[in-house]
Batch of 4 targets.
Target 1
Amino acid sequence: MLVVQNTSRAASVAAVVSLLYIPFCVVLLVADAALGFIIIRKVSYTEIDWVAYMEQITHVVDNGQRNYTLIEGGTGPIVYPAGHVAIYTLLWALTGKGADLLTAQNIFLYLYFLTHAIVLLGIYRITSIADPDRESDQSSSGNLLRPSTGATREPAKNPLGNAAPNQDDSISAIARALPGYVWAAVLLALSKRLHSIYVLRLFNDCFATFFVVIAVALTQRHKWSLSAIFFSLAVSVKMNALLFLPGAAIIYLQALGIFGAAKRTAVPFILIQILVALPFLVDFSPLTTLFKTHLAVASLPLYELGRAPETPPTVIQTLIPLAAGYLQALGSIPVTQFIAAVSQLRVSPYAFDYLSRAFEFSRVFLYKWTVNWRFVPEDIFLSPGFAKSLLGAHLATIVFGFASHRAGWWLAPLKPAKAVRAAPGGSDYSLAALVRSLFFENSRVVLARRVFDGMDPDYVLSTLVSSNLIGILFARSLHYQFYSWFYWTVPYALYRASKVYSIPVALAIWASQEWAWNTYPSTKISSIVVVNSLALMVLGLWLDGFKKYRAVRNSTGKFKKDA
């Protein structure tokens, strides 16, 4: 009787706390934004790449340079795709060619706020981190991926599907039932290094992360083409977003099949890359000459509206006249002249230079900046063999660890597809089953009916988070700003890992990781901590998924041959 009372009390408390998720996150976001304003005004800005970015953009805008090999700044040549150029061209215009640092810092603070708002309110809110009932309903129904129905919570079960031992401690029962955000989501606002990356360093990694979180939120909602577009926008800023590609590909293939995935995700992805890079792939000189001629005579009367002569223009007061001037210039071009200029467009002689520089996969990073492999001797770090070993470990972890029949997350939507097992040489729950299903019509029909039941927000987020973390674990080198690539996923990864390790261990992993990323310069000890923290999060995700797979298999009595 006492156990039932404690379980009921725990469920009631958890239900109430779940309703408080949005107010809790709003308060957290406001407090974090206030902290950001304080940091900007109290902590000195540190110059690393901002001036170099602005110098590179000056080459593009003022000098009209389109040869990527000749676009350089104080820290060297440009090595980022065209999306970076487009974004920092806008920042260049809004900050007086980079001179107005305060405006730039405020823009990055807004970016930080928006990114975390999307994470908390758009991504985490629809997962079990905000509502543990979602997960318990999935487990008790035998379908760990089915969305929550709001049913009364069943008595707790352990990850293997057996009844939990009797617990007389009501406080412990309530603590176990509380939503993950009570402790996990708070971690999102606690990183000293992340605040520095955004408002004190102004790195382009922040924009790549912004596009990624939008893409993840769209993928959770099955907006396949839109998610591919935003993944592509992220890649157009920095290539690190490609680390999400293995997980995203598994999701797209299961949901759409090979031809559907090609049409609805691969094509939009490639088109965005082409559109963003057009200024460097096509020689627009006939069109730009015509446009500049008309832009020179465009009047910009809106520039002075709403401000005194002695006050600097706001962002809006800058954007409005810029847009008005460009639209006025575009509208004043005669149609015949415009058509004639378009007919003279040609592929740029520097197109290959752009592709080779913006997507340079063979680039070797400097040993002095590495955060993760400081404990490896420099000669080994720089060797091609080390890079190949990391790539091999990356692929092996994905194929044999997460995309195998014993991985509980990546291929989970395949488990009900009996037609997959019926295919020649079929197996019910494997990477081979997915490949076969792409070419057997009967399998695709079954998958089309069942796969969406499996692709709930937790499945999508776990797959994408693990894909990214695996890539980061085996990255050739990590620099301090790369922390922004994955920090937004850390609370969720630790929440899932806490199901295996316990909450105190998860918090210890976070604290160790945060210490290591704030150790400058990196040391052998700090880099060992970085690598091991990532490894523990990846292992925690794998173990959590494996136990859930076992729980479903044991509860349904299916797939005995895999036991």
Target 2
Amino acid sequence: MTQVQQFQQAFESQAYKALVEIYLQSNTDENLSQVDFLYQKYVSGGESQFDWFQKIVTKLWQVKPITSEFISFVKDVNRLGFVLTPFKDKFELDQVDVQQNNVLHYIFSVAAQTQENLPFNYIRSLALFESNQTLAVALSTLNNQLLSPLEVFLAAVKKIHALPEHEFSAFFGLIQMMEQRQQSLQAYAKVIEHIGHLYRSANRMPLREEQLVLLTAALYKVSAQQVCMDLNF
């Protein structure tokens, strides 16, 4: 029986002392699977069990502190809330893994692929609780592909699709936060190439008032007309 299976068995048996011991003896990959198991159990159990699962995760991370490898676990805002609630002071948004990705890179990448559970309004709301400086650093961090989190979204979005108004507005708000760091962005050509491919696949021309055009223009401080011209190469 694997460490993950032993962990699951201990949980189902409510053997919480054994649960902690198994977690301590497991490697990082196994710990990730174990925490994911707890998260899935929480999701299937509903909000009423949130505090109970939080206590378990808190105990596990007290005896064995989280590492940068856990960044990849946070793939959407629901998982982010699951992590931030017990360990807000130990899980910084600007913490990066070996690929120089922070949680926002992962969250925005998944959102681009699915275009569901959009995160921008939630992330902007964190400014009420998080240090604005920490959030600005996270938003301006370039990963090993030289992409900031917002660029990750634009460079991976799957289709030309209008965002809900509150998410669209929040995206602009995140751009403004990012500007505090005055980070020089380097992926304009990559973003333009990807969005241009979306328009060509849809067999239509970009319009200056469309969201993807406006977001790209705002992020790179160019005009919407310039973005349209570059998309039509």
Target 3
Amino acid sequence: MEEDYELANARAWDTSLRDTAPQPENDDGNGWQVASRKKPVTQPSSQQNRQNPPASHPQHPRQAQSAHQRHPITAHSNNCGGPIISAQRPPAYDASRREPGKSANTTGHHQGHAFGQPSGPKPVKKIVPLSIESENISPAQQSWRRQEPPVDNVRIPADVAVQNATWKSIAVGHGTFMHTSDVKVGIGSGSWTFGIWGEPSAVAATKASIIAYVEETGASEKPSLSRKFAKTVSLTPVLEKRWQRAVLAERYRQFPPGDISFGAIGNFQWPIEEYRPEEVLGQSLEALDPIRMEHSCYVVKAERGQHVLQVMGDDRGVRHALKALKTTCFQIAARNLEPVRLHLIRWPCNSRGTHVYLETYRDPHVIAPPRMIQQSSRSPRVEGCAAGAADFEIARVSTLLSIERTRGTIENTLGQIAWLQGSVKFRIRLGVFLLTQYKQLQEGDMYELSEYETMTSQSQFKARTTEEMGDLHAEQNALAALQKADDMLTPQDALQHDLSAVAPVFSADFIFQNDAGDLHLAMTWHIAVDSDPNTPELEVGKKQWTRLDVDSGNATKLLDISLTDLQNGSAWSFELSTEKPVSEDKLPRSLVKFAQSAHISRDALKRQDTMRPFVVYTPHSAMRWMRERTEYRYGIIGTDYTLELSKYQVKDLTPGQEHRIFEPRWSLDVYRTAWDTNLAHNQNLRIGETASWTSDMKEWFPRDIGGPDADAEEDAAGVDGFMQLMKKLERVEALFRGLSEDGV
């Protein structure tokens, strides 16, 4: 049987895909060496493991390297066009991601990526739709939705039912569902009758628990001196109206009664052919409940077709509901966006090379346990010089085209995520460009420049930009250099004038294993205003829970663009990623307590001991990774951009494996707080809604504030805010490049 072309093509790049044909035997002679693979360690979420390289070499100056020292090759044959090479051993950890994926054992010859990056494309398969977030619908609630009569009833005092939702928790705990149609609230309302749906035994247990709870609270229909607790406070008009609206709206979650007439009935043709509505919206289309209740409409599947939804209600409600259904389809499409990855080249000095070779890059050092094998990666570098006048012009135009392509791709992506529900983050980061999956060199030890450019444009090519800036010497002197750069930076606090007086912000990220997708807790602390500098008081800032992708264990990348300077391997990474927000009331109690226990130790801050983190927390068995950061934030003069320099340290705490502590490193990010403000709308986006922000690039990348030549520059040369930003990024990069030991 002929093999699927796409699968065969993917196998040419990724040896983790099992070949349908017999594999050739290992050959240590002139034939191809087949890279053997080890089965991945079982984890709650899937991952692909990759092989360590034959050896780990220290980083040398380029002049001291021989051709064969630059890139040891592990190759294998395939049936799809020749040998390939894949960086099968990941670096010590992928600090280019905010959140790690699953870690694998690093002491053996084989290892999965410590941050869980997939090693290559997966076999081609039908896209599985992602369900819109909604509560899990139990069989008991399904019975209520179908207008079935309750199994039993129980009476609950009105004030207890309105002001305390404990009765809901009791029903959920027994696997039942409770509901009432009573809407009268106020003095003399007495108690209400709640129907209970579910299995008879569970219903009986629910009723007994409800009665016991009501007796414990001491609430009843009539005042009593024997109550154990004081009577519940009288209901306010706000609570009364809220209850009435909720009860009236709840009816639209059920199937429409058969004896009711409607002012209008509309049909919505389901536009997605790959899957039926109930596959993405739930068996009862429960994901559409917010639309049903907001517009007072029933929404059901039409009997005559699998891809037609019927909307019933008054004329105004039906019209608005149909529009909301259209928006919902855009939301579903946004959740299934294919990530955009571009790896582009820039020539800051307008000087092009002729060939590209691979240089060894030392990954962040593991300081504990000390016997841990240190890892390295490969970073591209250019060699040779095309010095003709035409070559200089080609380099200049090529850089402009890369910048324009970056600009257009960002604009296109922003236009598609206005419907995306989730916690979205957009950052520009300075790091080192590393190859993780690439074609084997055919002859010699270098790529032709055109060959390298072709390779990076192919879908099988994989690369990443490190989180750390990359040069240890420059990183160690970065903070001092920024504190002196008063011609480029300014304190964000208008009352401050000295860059060295900018107080840091502290943050921590924790990752917990979970079968439905690992949970990510992000916390920040800042120094309280007017606190004693000798004993600063720290206040908790942000505390946010999100869920990572269940397959990769990382945030989902929507956009990943790297603009690389091949002279030194440095790259500006434009990254747009998303995670699913998680409400704290849906978390295990142990995780809620963990978040409450996490705090900053002032003594640890003073000691600056790399073996003892300054974030103190109660150990949790599910925690597999944590990172603490000390962030220094400055404003870029003439703009509203923030330059954030961070010192961070990572601890890999994967259960069942030896814990690893990495050396502290420094990262640099550039962003606008307006980006965070805009994208925060997506986090609270409801079904059928669109974010209110615009994707206009003039809004996302505004021109400089003031400046004598700001208007003239754009009018004369067509330079917009994005081009002005790129010039400022060049200045920032040049500042840190001058801090390196060799000045390159």
Target 4
Amino acid sequence: MAAVSMSEALRQMLWGKRAVAVAAISVSRVPIRLLSTSTWRLAQDQTRDTQLITVDEKLDITTLTGVPEEHIKTRKVRIFVPARNNMQSGVNNTKKWKMEFDTRERWENPLMGWASTADPLSNMILTFSTKEDAAAFAEKNGISEDVGVQAARTDVNVCDQQGASEV
């Protein structure tokens, strides 16, 4: 019983064989309740979630989305990587690809002077990890896309700027 390794005991505990695992853990002088029941359930749920169903043929889901046809057929989306904020040196929100719908008619609200629109999609920005994911989403929803290129990042050397100003 003492020959069972710690990782084997944890593996057995995760897969439901608790009696052997508890005996092995108690022999090795580790607290008996090493994993909570919520962690054990989470590990079981993750094994169920990894089973994905893939469909090889191309599917058109425009009829299932509930978006009116006039918002899909005549719309274009712009897929891009946002530029870095000039006021800050960080690169936050510049590693993901964004999808933005083109803007439709806007007007100024006479009561408050606010800009108004009847288009619910014009204010929606979607985020994707890759350009291919964004293009696949647009194609799957029947929206024509306009893909921008990712600008090459140029790091300016501080020494070069100081040397240029002295000349």
